[in-house]
Amino acid sequence: MDTRLQTCIQARFQLDFPDFSLQTDLQLPARGVTVLFGPSGCGKTTLLRCIAGLERAPVGFFQVRETVWQDSSRHCFLPPYRRPLGYVFQEPSLFEHLNVRGNLAFGQKRVPVHERRVAMEQALDLLGIGHLLERMPQHLSGGEKQRVAIARALAVSPQLLLLDEPLAALDLPRRQEILPFLARLHQELDIPMLYVTHSPQEVTRLGDHLVILEQGRVVASGNLQETLTRLDLPLAQSRQASTVLSVSVCGHETAYQLTEVCFAGGRLQLPLRETIATGTALRLRIYARDVSLTLQPPQQTSILNVLPATITHLATGEEGQTIVKLSLGGALLLAHVTRKSADVLGLQPGLPVFAQIKATAIL
Amino acid sequence: MPSDADLVAILLTLKLAGLTTLILLLLGTPLAWWLTHSHWRGKSVINALVALPLVLPPAVLGFYLLVLMGPHGPVGQFTHAIGLGTLPFTFGGLVIASVLYSLPFVVQPLQNAFEAIGTRPLEVAATLRARRLDTFFSVVLPLARPGFLTATVLGFAHTLGEFGVVLMVGGNIPGRTQVISMQILNHVEAGSYLQAHWLAAGMLVFSFVVLLVLYSFAPYTRRHH
After folding, report:
1. What ipTM describes this predicted complex?
2. Taking the mean position of all CA atoms in its chain, how far away is CA A5?
3. Taking CA atoms, which of A343, B51, B92, B183 is between 20 and 30 Å from B61?
4. Which residue, B72, B62, B31, is CA-closest to B166?
């Protein structure tokens, strides 16, 4: 892929509040989903508001592809209503005086006809809200409201979609209801998205690129797999540490109720998903705690998925844990093992091992 | 039965209240908007000034208006210089006095309505390509409709009932400044209580009906905010 296309969103902001300051200098890919991740109060939302122009950073530069939206050195600042973006707030914030159709049309009819690329029907279809068109917001559930809010943001045919913790205000079942729709946007639309969240689950489910923020500063920014497996970051240390593998379905073993997927590091077998056609691309999440290591290929084991790997890095974790970073033909995987096992096995960078994967989850 | 003079007073009162309410909506809307969204430190001074007619005896307001607009007052000298003459004891003077007197009854409901809307819908509208004025007409106005209804009704009803200010600034000139409340006073002073009843009871019923309508809308208002 063209590297220039990879990094064509530039976001430099400096903004000071009495008790908080935001300082960023980011180069982001202008495609796929960039997740802005960090604890609450770290400045993710402020960064998103600066990008939208809802907050005016005194020192700021923002560019998407060839278009500059803000350049404080040249006193250039496009007001929010002139920025070709879509914004989804944490609360759905639908216009209470308009029905669903009116809410969707509000933004769309203000976009010049020749700039409209997302049809109303497409937005409705992507979010599954076609049957709600005539409803007033008061008569929608929380999940439906947020789906309408996302469709409303899409209906302005944005060049950049900004989502500020769109699931945070919803309970778990509602979140599970909306996540598949967001994943679909990701697959079907070529609109770059900046997605703010503090949920590791949403990071692994949706992200392509990961930016980690802490106290208004960028701690890390990079490809999702590389950043998830950076041993110097708290993500890899946490009990929820996981990695994401991009795989494709290469067959089904119906007799054993198994589906086989392939990636650069080999083949894995998963519980049968006959509905997924051969050749389909999938994302798998593998928790570090579900990966164990052996030096010899295990002869007799109930664990199906054992793959050769090479240790690339080691780090000391909490509670007597050692965090091991593995390369499986280039694909990255984390394993949490006890420090005792690490010593007994003599684990060190460069050592070839076998990774036993106890569980995988399709994202 | 109401006399011809009564009918003239009723028409004059309705004209005064209607014109005052219209002017107040035009001036009060930007003022209330500014009071809601300004971060200026001296804002509370303006808030206090707007609320002043709520607590001030109408005679005090009327007295100072009389002094200001009279031939020796700065406003009076200005209006005289531009060829308008002096405003006390004219319909124009009465309109100005009523606008000041009823100001809080229009500005405060609007301010409450704008504050209830908050800034989020404005931000949403901005991210949906709406300019500020566009946002005001397409989002703020419809959402603040109950507030505008309250402001209109209170501004109108309060102007209908004014007495002290009229007494000081307007006097009792038939067809020009003789409003219903003055006419009731005239009837009482002349000892014709029956005539006074026609007007007084009319005012009572009208005011009650207006407030009844207003409060019937109130639950609707609350549900929306």
Report:
1. 0.86
2. 19
3. B183
4. B62
**How many angstroms away from the CA of A216 is the closest CA of chain B?**
23
Tokens, residue B157: 């009803």
* Domains of chain A and CATH, by start: 3-237 (3.40.50.300), 242-362 (2.40.50.100)
Domain-embedded: residue B137: no
The tens-digit pLDDT sequence of chain B (225 residues) is 788 889 999 999 999 999 999 999 999 999 999 999 999 999 999 999 999 999 999 889 999 999 999 989 999 999 888 888 888 889 999 999 999 999 999 999 999 999 999 999 999 999 999 999 999 999 999 999 999 999 999 999 999 988 888 888 888 888 888 999 999 999 999 999 999 999 999 999 998 998 888 888 765 444 443
> Is B60 inside a domain boundary?
no
Type of residue at B15: K
**Domains identified in chain B, total number:** 1
**CA–CA dist A149, A130 (Å, integer):** 13
B63 assigned to some structural domain: no
Question: Structure tokens of A29?
Answer: 């890919």
Q: B127–A93: do the CB atoms touch at under 8 Å? A: no
Is residue B178 one of the residues assigned to a domain?
yes
Which CATH number fits the domain that encloses residue B217? 1.10.3720.10
Mark yes or no for CB contact B120/A156 under 8 Å: no
For residue B182, give Cα distances in angstroms to A111, A355, B173, B175: 58, 97, 9, 12
Q: Which residues pair with B27 in a beta bridge?
A: none
What domain range is B189 assigned to? 4-36+73-116+148-224
CB distance B139–A153 less than 8 Å?
A: no
Q: Residue A300 burial (CB < 10 Å; 0-12/13-18/19+)?
A: exposed
| Tokens matching residue B152 | 């209109």
